[in-house]
Fold this protein.
Amino acid sequence: MLTIAEILPLTCVSTRLDASAKSGVLAQLAELYRGSDVGLEPSKIVEVLAERERLASTGVGSGVAIPHGRVPGLRGVRCVFGVHREGVDFEAIDGEPVHLFIGVLAPDGQASQHLKALARISRLFRNAELREALIAAKDEAEAHRLLVQADEGASQA
């Protein structure tokens, strides 16, 4: 099973998301993928994420959204993570603003890897202490460290 450390490089983390609407947040997340080996233009990534959002919001509640999609030719699951300190309306299922965004791109044809990554991420973000610590993280390195440590702790439990 892939770990957060394997699919989320520090270069794909931002603690400074500031878009005022869902479309802007998706664009900011797409830009974060420049720090990975995805090799797609951000505009293409926005299309993939927005297409999934049209089906139903990926705002899962408790201030968390997991925008995701599948991309042909991708070498494996790749993630980005962003904190929006003020929170933004993302049409979350609980109607609350979203502060924490973890974008997930998976290879087309690897539904099982995609679903496993989503399940692992969902479990991590159930932890209220982790969510609060991530919103308060002083910088990208601290946010990344918190996620990696929480994931390591969860996999040992």
